[in-house]
Automatic annotation (TrEMBL):
It comes from the Bacteria. GO terms for molecular function: carbon-oxygen lyase activity, acting on polysaccharides; metal ion binding. Residues 32-53 are annotated as: Disordered. Residues 98-135 form the DUF1565 domain. Residues 212-377 form the Pel9A-like right handed beta-helix region domain. Keywords: Calcium, Lyase, Metal-binding, Secreted, Signal. This is Uncharacterized protein. SMART domains: PbH1 (SM00710). Its cofactor is Ca(2+). It holds the Pfam family Pel9A-like_beta_helix. It comes from Streptomyces turgidiscabies (strain Car8).
Length: 461
């Protein structure tokens, strides 16, 4: 390896480091919708989004950590932490489509591939990617970890749109009934810890992001769409990961006729402390969110899941499930106490929320199901101990299917009366499906599925 390759730039290289990663612009879903987009998934552009910070009942300081506070932490992590305790000063590597992998990785002489930067990065370093489309012929493999005090940061350069395109990956075109080799599953394939990844758009991969055995990572403001399996999958022994402000849509799996491509899957593994916050999961062929065979509690907040489970791709022998939030599964399903707060599931092909056989003490609070073809809140597994509180069901095939041990308090079906579309201020999703706010959080939707009578139930956005 030449000395020029090893000459990596540092914070004195002239890069505008402060604010680097969290000045990213996530594309307006209305400009790149998934196939058959529900209601067009339109709305305001980021430039025209209301700027007021209307805080729903449960958006406290801890929840907002996912954006403003976390943004400061991420910007600091990749650049400043390395100076502590005598550690090597943090280094920044720049990648650009017109770069050269034999270059030193400076702003003036960037690297060409994200993989080269990943291979060079050490704990505390920052990889910043210039705008453009990075067409992969091999997946981006992240195998080396940062540390608790020196995480590695990967993100888009100062508001530029970075697209990671996996269309040319062989695994993206696995035939019907075929299997994808484990090492080839993600366009971004990670088996590492202490990374901070933000502001990337991942398309046409086998999976968009596939993270196996990953701990203490933060994934923020990613867009994963039109992949050939799940948009984002976390599995294996994975703990203390935060998935923040994810948009994942239009993902499908032709090799299984729609059986397993979810918007977001945290499945087939275990590990405490995993958090999903501010996600939108829509028009995926299987489920919006799937926790199949995950043995540890997951916390989901301020997240919406809609339009999932429809055969927009005309797959034969269609096998998509179509749940908004699938909260278990397996034979037998592990008993896991997942927690959902301020979430909404609407217009899905099956259930809004379902235990899917999980008998654990699932807690769902201040959440809304609307217009789902199946049951809004499906929690009737034998011995199930779910607690449903202050939830709202509107125009679902059935409002609730409780089990004998389900605890149900203060929900629309407990309050009595008739609950239908006319019971709320608006059923139009244009606001919640429009452009995100400048800080990456969900757009404000003060009328969407909010009861006219002021009843304090259901989600608020």
């Amino acid at each position: 390896m030449s000395a020029s390759v090893l000459s990596r730039s540092n914070t004195a290289s002239g890069l505008p480091l402060l604010g680097l990663l969290f000045c990213v612009t996530v594309p307006d879903p209305s400009q790149s919708p998934g196939p058959g987009n529900l209601h067009g998934v339109g709305g305001h552009s980021l430039a025209t989004q209301p700027r007021q910070r209307r805080e729903p009942y449960m958006r406290n300081a801890a929840i907002r950590t996912g954006t403003a506070v976390l943004g400061t932490a991420l910007m600091t992590a990749g650049m400043l932490v390395g100076a502590a305790s005598g550690a090597t000063a943090a280094t920044t590597l720049v990648v650009a489509t017109g770069g050269d992998d034999s270059a030193p990785g400076t702003l003036a002489r960037p690297l060409k591939t994200i993989q080269r930067a990943v291979d060079l990065a050490k704990p505390g370093d920052t990889i910043t990617v210039r705008g453009g489309t990075y067409a992969l012929t091999d997946n981006i493999t992240i195998a080396a970890s940062g540390t608790a005090s020196q995480p590695i940061t990967l993100g888009a350069y100062s508001g530029e749109r970075v697209v990671v395109d996996g269309e040319r990956l062989p695994a993206s075109h696995t035939p019907v009934g075929g299997s994808i080799p484990r090492a080839e599953r993600g366009a971004i394939h990670q088996e590492a810890s202490y990374w901070r990844i933000s502001g990337l758009e991942i398309v046409n991969g086998p999976y968009g992001v596939y993270c196996d055995g990953c701990n203490n990572n933060v994934f923020a403001r990613l867009v994963t769409h039109d992949n050939y399996e799940s948009g984002f999958q976390l599995q294996g022994a994975s703990a203390n990961n935060q998935i923040l402000d994810l948009d994942s849509y239009g993902n499908r799996d032709p090799r299984k006729n729609g059986e397993s491509a979810d918007g977001l899957a945290v499945k087939e593994g275990g590990g405490t402390g995993n958090i999903v916050r501010g996600a939108r999961l829509w028009n995926n062929v299987d489920d919006g969110f799937d926790a199949w065979k995950f043995t540890s509690p997951i916390t989901i907040e301020n997240t919406v899941s809609y339009g999932n489970g429809f055969n927009r791709w005309n797959f034969p022998d269609f096998a998509g499930d179509g749940n908004g939030f699938k909260l278990g599964g397996g034979s037998p399903a592990p008993a896991v106490a997942h927690v959902l707060r301020n979430t909404a599931a609407f217009k899905n092909a099956a259930h809004g929320f379902t235990d899917n056989g999980n008998p654990g003490a699932i807690g769902i609070n201040r959440s809304t199901a609307y217009g789902n073809a199946g049951t809004g809140f499906d929690f009737d597994v034998s011995g199930g101990r779910a607690t449903l509180s202050a939830d709202l069901s509107l125009a679902d095939g059935r409002a609730v299917a409780p089990g004998s041990a389900t605890v149900s308090t203060g929900n629309s079906w407990d309050l009595g009366g008739t609950w239908n579309a006319s019971s709320v201020l608006s059923t139009a999703p244009a606001e919640i499906t429009g452009g995100r706010r400048a800080d990456g959080s969900l757009p404000t939707a003060p009328a969407f599925l909010v009861p006219r009578a002021g009843t304090n139930i259901g989600a608020r956005f």
